[in-house]
Amino acid sequence: MKQIDVCLTPDLLHLHKVENTIVVVADVFRATSCMVTAFAYGVNSIIPVATIEECQLYQERGYLAAAERNARKVDGFELDNSPFTYMDERIRGANVAMTTTNGTLAITKSRSAVKVLVGSFLNLDAVVQFLKTERYDVMVLCAGWKGRVNMEDTLFAGALVERLKDSYAMAEDSAIMAWRLYCQGKDNLPSYLSSSSHIQRLQRLGIQKDITYCLQHDLYDVVPVLRGNALVSMQI
């Protein structure tokens, strides 16, 4: 039987098997939710990069550029890390370069996988349907926060395990933990997450609407996949 594993933070990635595995990267608040939204609204491609300097180089080549650090937009860039920014006509057909505190770093660290997918609650069912057709093991890579574990990405991992548990065996305790955490909180995720560190960080910035939006399930049927150095969308 195929297996599903969960890596709770990129700092633990060296302990997990990436080769011959499909990696689903989750940065629920807010990078992967932004990416899914951008593709749903017609962006052509997104190039995830680890550093601000790399993003600037793409900006100089004519890409729309998005840069976030510590949950705030970096000065000098057109786009930020709010999904509502990507509900804009100017992104339709555009090529975007993006760097964020956690999510894009997690994607760039996963390049040796068979496939790298972008996951969020917004496209959860689309990711599930795609993975059910694949023959490879799956690992959910939680972007976390600066190397630390966070609740929202772990809950997404648990949601994916919950929906795939009839097709995939749970490989390690981290998958079981994520699944049990999601089962405990799934009936009211906003309340369950209310005291979590990143919720509090975002609320201090006055962006409750981003939190509410990112916790919605199954809004879009797009699955961003890494092809070369760019994410493109697969329609499910």
Task: Report on this structure.
- The chain is α/β, with parallel strands linked by helices and 236 residues long.
- It has a single domain, classed as putative 2-phosphosulfolactate phosphatase.
- 34% of the residues lie in helices and 23% in strands.
- The protein contains 9 helices and 11 strands.
- It has helices at residues 31-40, 52-60, 103-108, 124-132, 151-164, 173-185, 189-192, 197-204, 208-214, and strands at 2-7, 21-26, 45-48, 64-69, 72-73, 95-99, 115-119, 137-142, 168-170, 222-227, 230-235.
- The strands form 3 sheets. It has a 5-stranded parallel β-sheet with strand order 7-2-8-1-9. It has a 4-stranded mixed β-sheet with strand order 3-6-4-5. It has a two-stranded antiparallel sheet with strand order 10-11.
- Strand 10 (222-227) and strand 11 (230-235) form a beta hairpin.
- The longest helix is centred in the C-terminal third of the chain and has 14 residues, at 151-164.
- It is globular.
- C-alpha end-to-end distance: 24 Å
Q: Any guess at the CATH architecture? A: Alpha-Beta Complex
What is the oligomer described by this structure? single chain
Give the tally of β-strands. 11
Number of helical runs? 9
Silhouette: globular
| CATH uppermost class | Alpha Beta
How much strand? 15-25%
Please trace the helix and strand order, writing H or E for each element. EEHEHEEEHEHEHEHHHHEE
